[in-house]
Amino acid sequence: YSGKKTGQAVTDSMMNMKVRDFQSIPIVVTENMMVYDAICHMFLEDVGTLFVVDKNAYLTGALSRKDLLRTSLGNKELNKIPVHIIMTRMPNITYCFKHDSLIHAAKKLIDKQIDALPIVKEHPDGYEVIGRITKTNITGAFLSLAENHDL
Ligand code: ADP
């Protein structure tokens, strides 16, 4: 790291990082999926957050590892509880858009103390889930910034 010029260049690249350029594929499940199947899904897809959609494929909720763990602790009948009963639901879902800056998304993750945000596209009657941004994506972006500037 050497001096003012590098500092300005790093700042510029950081401000230009967009959610779109660092996103992952979203894993979504429908509201009526049973908790048992959602747990299997989370393992098979190797994600920490599942997004929940209605029959029109519009965002209705989010499911974290601990949401599923909490439900598993007290219940034997995970095959009979649909995920919409235990999920965090709209309008309490924090989301972002693909053109948002990565900094803006990072701030949402920290402010809300969550691991992932759905990237959505707005339609007249709902939000379509088109991507996912996680703490891992932000860490990767942080590293790419250092690498691109030989830090
Ligand atoms: P964990 O609960 O496994 O630590 P999180 O910190 O991501 O994982 O989730 C904390 C809580 O926030 C959970 O109850 C989860 O349903 C909820 N949550 C996860 N993602 C979002 C989101 N994008 N918007 C609102 N709530 C969320």
Describe this structure in words.
The protein is an alpha+beta fold and 151 residues long. It has one domain (3-148): CBS-domain (Roll), CATH 3.10.580. Helix content is 42%, strand content 22%. Helix 3 (35-45) packs across helix 4. Residues 49, 62-67, 88, 92-94, 113-117 line the site of adenosine-5'-diphosphate.
Comma- or semicolon-separated keywords:
151 residues, alpha+beta, CBS-domain, four-stranded mixed sheet, 6 strands, 22% strand, elongated
Write a concise synopsis of the structure shown.
This protein is of the alpha+beta class. It has one domain: CBS-domain (Roll). It is built from 6 helices and 6 strands, in the order H-H-E-H-E-E-H-E-H-E-E-H.
The biggest beta sheet, please? Answer: 4 strands, mixed
CATH architecture: Roll
In CATH's first tier, which class applies? Answer: Alpha Beta
Average pLDDT level = 96
Ligands and ions found: adenosine-5'-diphosphate
Poorly predicted tracts of residues: none
Alpha-beta classification: alpha+beta
CATH topology: CBS-domain
Q: Roughly what fraction of the amino acids lie in strands?
A: 15-25%
Q: How far from one another are the termini?
A: 6 Å
Strand order of the largest sheet: 1-2-3-4
Gyration radius (Cα, Å) is 18 Å
* Shape designation: elongated
Compute the number of helices: 6
Topology:
Blueprint: H1 3-16, H2 19-22, E1 28-30, H3 35-45, E2 49-53, E3 59-64, H4 65-74, E4 88-89, H5 102-112, E5 116-123, E6 126-134, H6 135-148
Parallel strand pairs: 1-2
Antiparallel strand pairs: 2-3, 3-4, 5-6
Helix pairs in contact: 3-4
The structure holds adenosine-5'-diphosphate.
Organism: Paenisporosarcina antarctica
Domain CBS: 22-78, 87-151
Protein name: Transcriptional regulator
